[in-house]
Amino acid sequence: MLEELTVDDVVVLKAMSGWSRVNTRLLMDSVGFKRTKFYNCVNKLIKLGLINRVLTGEYELTSQGRAIAERLVNPSEAVKILYGENQPIKVKVESSDIEVKNLEDLLNIVELASTEDVYQHVRRGGLARWLYVIGDKPLSREINRLRNAVTRFNVKDMLKKILEERVKFLKELASLLDAAKRRSR
Fold this sequence. Notes:
Elements lengths: L6 H10 L5 E2 H8 L3 H13 L3 E5 L2 E4 L1 H7 L5 H9 L5 E5 L2 E5 L2 H8 L4 H9 L2 H9 L2 H10 L8 H30 L1
Antiparallel strand pairs: 1-3, 2-3, 4-5
Helix pairs in contact: 1-3, 1-4, 5-10, 6-10, 8-9
């Protein structure tokens, strides 16, 4: 679904995620788009089944739209979360601490990391706090919900699966930014 969206569409969906229903004026003001650009985005999102027109001048996210909107970050933030030099978190690998500064590195190191260290990062909320700090609030919430569901036996598998899905999603989101840059040249 993300491949059909543009950066502007993402901005509208992200803005709508804060409301159950929103009127045209408020939504247009919050995204800062001119009238034509705004209505082009809204009409496209309606056609894709991500938002509904409730009343004249009032919109709401569909369940599919809400599921996508709640996972969104700004496409430029997606690049920073995936590959950036963010505040590090230390992960124990064998007898040394490795500093992980982005989501891509975390995914690559999870398999090698000490199971006990990963378990403690998840259970005590350190990983969720780090994700929040680097800007991935949706993943932070998901990992926070995982705190009471993991055991020492399944923590690495569960975390790896979640991270793989999130990295894939963020790469798709980041590709929207690349596509926008290519179109503007």
